[in-house]
Amino acid sequence: MTTITTPAVDADRYALSAGNSGIWIVCLECSGDDQIVGVLSDHRVRHTDIQTLMAEHDADRHRPAEPRCIVCAAEPVWNGPPITAPISAPTPIEGLCISCAFWVTTVKNRLALGRLLDRTATGAPVARIDGRLYTMEPAPLRGTVAMRGHGGNTFTIRYFTGKAVTGSNLWDCGEIPARWRPLLPDNAIFGREPEPQ
Ligand SMILES: [Zn+2]
Ligand SMILES: [Zn+2]
Q1: Nearest Cα residue to 174 out of 137, 135, 132
Q2: I need a surface site. Which of 29, 31, 52, 150 has the fewest CB within 10 A?
């Protein structure tokens, strides 16, 4: 058997052996069918072919575990990219997944001083109704093409403070996860059901 220089990929876990059908690349850390990384015809073995197969196997089976969110420990850490429309993604927060970054940002906005109604960073009213978060964004400017939340249906939000907001661009930001509820308690009810289209 010819000596083959093992590629630099993650070669420690691989073994090469020559058989009638060619060069077999075997993963020593996988079992069953998974351990056969590839078989190369011995007439055309190229270093780069072996490296490519090993790299593919590494990516499929031995991907290093993504760091997990330090808050929920369930989702991978998220770091961008910024998204602006129609609902903006939160600014990445080191060590947090996109969901926890969103809820931390929501909590921070809520606890900002000098706000009679809960509002987003851009000033849109925020409502928490039955454990869900909603924002009432301003109506799109006339003549602009923009998506409205809830198909543009009109909603009235009645805050526990007695104030009310009516608008036709209500966005549902989803259920508030249990761990964030104490910091994001309900603050309103709907004044009426959405109007039929
Ligand atoms: Zn393997
Ligand atoms: Zn998280």
Answers
A1: 132
A2: 31
Please indicate, yes or no, if residue 78 is contained in any of the structural domains. no
Same domain, 57 and 120: no
State the distance from the centre of ligand 2 to the C-alpha of 174, rounded, in angstroms.
15
Q: Which range (17-21, 47-51, 81-85) has the least confidence?
A: 81-85
Question: Distance, CA 10 to ligand 2 centroid (Å)?
Answer: 31
Question: Do 186 and 120 share a domain, yes or no?
Answer: yes
Domain count, the chain: 2
User: Is 50 exceeded by the pLDDT of residue 160?
Assistant: yes
| Residue at 4 is within a domain | no
What's the CA-to-centroid distance between 173 and ligand 2, angstroms? 16
Which protein residues have a CB closer than 5 Å to ligand 2 (ion)? 69, 71-72, 75, 97, 100
Residues pairing with 38 in the sheet: 25
Tell me the two tokens of residue 82: 């910024």
Q: Is 75 exposed, middle or buried (0-12, 13-18, 19+ CB in 10 A)?
A: middle
Q: Is residue 67 one of the residues assigned to a domain?
A: no
Specify the pLDDT at position 167.
Answer: 93
Domain span at 129: 116-190
Q: Is residue 43 predicted with pLDDT exceeding 70? A: no
pLDDT tens figures, 91-141: 889 999 999 999 998 898 888 866 777 888 788 999 999 999 999 998 887
